[in-house]
Amino acid sequence: MTETYEIAVFEGDGIGPEITTPTIALLKQLAAASTGYDLRFVTLPAGAGHYARTGESLPAESLRVAAAADAILLSAMGLPDVRYPDGTEISPQIELRMAFDLFAGIRPVSVRQGQAGPLTLPEGREIDFVLVRESTEGLFYSMGTGVVSETEARETLRITREISEKLFRFSFDLARSRRQAGRGPGRVTCVDKANVFRAFAFFRGIFDEIATEYPDLAAEHAYVDATALWMVQKPWDFDVLVTENMFGDILSDLGAGLMGGLGLAPSADIGLKQAVFQPCHGSAPDIAGQGVANPHAMILSAAMMLDWLGLKHDNAALRTDGVRLREAVEAVIASGDCLTRDLGGTAGTDAAAGAVQRVLRTARAA
């Protein structure tokens, strides 16, 4: 009997619905052609637009349904002119991270030979690494509750043993699975600032403890400033990088820059039970409704979702289709034949997604 997986969908704000629609169409195409699984989609309200209309950014019923779903697919959220009374942004994605304890933020960075971008890859080199960002504490711990007076402002950085141990085990398990898939050497690098801050020395110490549980994998350290330099000079040397919330927030945008922009940057926030998959970019209301938004980060996030579901449920068909969808996007980007405006081309949203669809059909027919 084919297993059906329920996907909670948040269409988002601005360009969110425009990039969600073709992504869902691709997922339905894959599921329809598979005998190993089926997908059922449930669209839920949330976001800045919903807040402007109702005064709620993430309704309790949406949270309840999302909690019961097998995975959550979330599009770009937020609008610059819609804020909470304290001036902070409407961020349901962060609320979901906190509500579901989604401690592992996954930010893959991939650049293939032939792909246009800010770096010229040396012959035989490709970029393929994953940044794992702790997503529930760090410098984001006091979000919205920092202390501000006329003379100073303070925020609290929090690192706990409980979350750090889960984060590091997740990172080592990821490095092992990447090595088994032929995508990395099995190496995890702890990125910190342990030479200055006691909190990061604590973070590094826990990393070293967990590393002893994985004697078959390499464990390394790097300071965050040096890592930023090396991500530009030799990004092909990395495999899995694990770091604190704010450092990961910054380095993930640098990783997106290596790929050519946020339009190619997918992400996932993963906990022990639930997971949210979403593009790294914003809602871009300035181009909403024009049909020119780049859908690839959203599609790549959906590919990550299929892979995660396949791992969680030991379903090879899901994992296979996750790889096929990712590779189809990579093939379109590397060919340079159907690039969106942000990548230097002229293709619209539907054309870019259609190119991915054609690659999938051609590959299945071959």
What this model shows, in words?
The chain has about 375 residues and is of the alpha/beta class. It has two domains: about 1-105 and about 265-365, Isopropylmalate Dehydrogenase (3-Layer(aba) Sandwich), CATH 3.40.718.10; about 120-260, Isopropylmalate Dehydrogenase (3-Layer(aba) Sandwich), CATH 3.40.718. Helices cover about 45% and strands about 15% of the residues. The strands form two sheets. A ten-stranded mixed beta sheet has the order 2-1-3-12-11-4-5-10-8-9, sandwiched between helices. A hairpin with a 4-residue loop joins strand 6 and strand 7. The mean pLDDT is about 95.
The CATH topology of the largest domain turns out to be Isopropylmalate Dehydrogenase
Give the % helix. Answer: 40-55%
User: What is the end-to-end distance?
Assistant: 27 Å
Q: What does the radius of gyration come to? A: 20 Å
Instruction: Assign the CATH architecture of the largest domain.
Output: 3-Layer(aba) Sandwich
Strand order of the largest sheet: 2-1-3-12-11-4-5-10-8-9
Task: Describe the largest sheet.
Answer: 10 strands, mixed
Shape: globular
Overall average residue pLDDT: 94
- The CATH superfamily of the largest domain is Isopropylmalate Dehydrogenase
Given helix and strand content, the structural type is alpha/beta
CATH class of the largest domain: Alpha Beta
List low-confidence stretches: none
Approximate strand percentage? 15-25%
Count helical runs.
11
* Secondary-structure element order, N to C: EHEHHEHEEEEHEHEHEHEEHHH
What is the domain total for the residues? 2
Number of strands: 12
Keywords: Amino-acid biosynthesis, Branched-chain amino acid biosynthesis, Leucine biosynthesis, Magnesium, Manganese, Metal-binding, NAD, Oxidoreductase
Family: Belongs to the isocitrate and isopropylmalate dehydrogenases family. LeuB type 1 subfamily.
EC number: 1.1.1.85
GO biological process, one term: L-leucine biosynthetic process
